[in-house]
Amino acid sequence: MAISIFFISCENTSKSDNSDEDSTITQLNEDETRLFYLVPSPEDLFEFTSDAQLIFNPDILNKSENVEKYIDTKSKEINFGIYAADLAYCAAFSKNQETVEYLHVVRTLSDKVGISAAFDESLIKRIENIDDNKDSLKTVSSDTYYDIVTFLEKNDRVGTLSLISTGGWIESLYIVTNLITKYQANSASIQRIADQKIIFSNLILYLEQNKEVEYVSKTLELISPIKQIFDELEIVKIETPKTPENEGQIVVGGNTRINITEAQFKKLKETIAKVRNNITTNNVTL
Q: Residue 256 pLDDT more than 70?
C-alpha cells in the first residue's frame, strides 16, 4: 500500500554527480520509500469502496467515546491505528461530520500517546478549516496519517509505529469485509481482499524486523490466526492469452493472481472481526 508515496519518493531520488546535499536527500527518500512500502496505509485500502458502490455503514466504526476505555499506552497506540482507519473510511465516503469527528479523536489520542508534535500548526489549521469536498477530506486524512508515520520513524519509535500500523490494517480489512454481504468470486472487492496477502506480508516483515521489542512480538502472536489464513491463499499464474498481434511470437512472462475461496473469505472475515473486537473492547494485553 502507500503506492502514491512510493512513486513520489522514487521520482525525487535523482541527483547530480557533484552534489553532497542531493546525495543526502536521495538517502533520506530511499529510507522513506522503504518505510512507506512496509507500513500499510488504511487510506489506500478504501480507494475502491466508491467504485464497488458499497454503502457507508457508521455502525462499523469504533465509537469515538470508546477512546476513554483505553488506559494503558499500548492499548491507546493500537487503537490509534483503529481510529486512523475509521477516519480514512469516513473521508473515503465524503462524510464530513464523521470525518471531522474522527480527526479530533485521532488528534486527542495523539496527545495521550505522545505524538502530538506530529500535528504541526499548518496541519491543525487544515483540520479546523476542512470542508465537505471529497478530495479535501481524503487529502487531510491521508496527510495526517503520513505525518504521524514520518514523525514516529524519525524519532525511532518503531514499537509505537508497529502497533499503529497493525491497528490501522486490521480495522481497514474489518470494515471492508463487513461491507461485503455476499461473496462473488470475480468481484473487484473480493480480489482486492485476496491481494491483501501481499500487503499483510509487508506488515509481518516490518513487525519481524522489530520483534526484539516485547510488545511487537506479542503483536505478531495477536495476528498469527490471520496469517494462517493468508498463508493458505493460492497464488496462480495467468498466462498471457494469444492474440492476432502476438501470434507466432514468443510471449515472455505472465501475470499472477491470488485466489480466495468463499470458505476462506468467511473464515478471514470471522477471524479479523474476532481480533479487531478484542482490541477495541480492550481485551488484549501487549
A: yes
Grid cell listed for 249 = 511470437
Domain layout of the chain by residue ranges? 1-15+24-35, 39-280
Distance CA 150, CA 35 (A): 9
Could you give the 3-state DSSP secondary structure of residue 97? helix
Is residue 281 classed exposed, middle or buried when 0-12, 13-18 and 19+ CB atoms within 10 A define those classes?
exposed
C-alpha cell at 107: 488528534
Q: What is the pLDDT of residue 93?
A: 83
* Cβ within 8 Å of residue 263, ≥6 positions away: none
Cα–Cα distance between 120 and 172 in angstroms, integer?
A: 26
Non-local CB neighbours of 49 within 8 Å, separated by 6+ positions: 89, 92, 93, 176, 179
pLDDT value for 30: 47
What is the residue-wise DSSP string for 180-247? --S--TT-HHHHHHHHHHHHHHHHHHHHHHTTTSHHHHHHHHHTHHHHHHHHHSEEEEEPPPP-TTTT
Taking only the tens place, the pLDDT of each residue in 102-123 is 988 988 898 999 988 877 667 6
Cα 125 to the chain's mean position, in Å?
A: 25
Q: Residue 62 corresponds to which cell in the numbers above?
A: 469504533
| Most confident range, picked from 39-53, 129-143, 237-251, 259-273 | 259-273
Can you tell me the distance from the alpha carbon of 271 to that of 145, in angstroms, rounded to the nearest whole number?
A: 26
Q: Give the cell for residue 58.
A: 457508521
d(CA 223, CA 259): 21
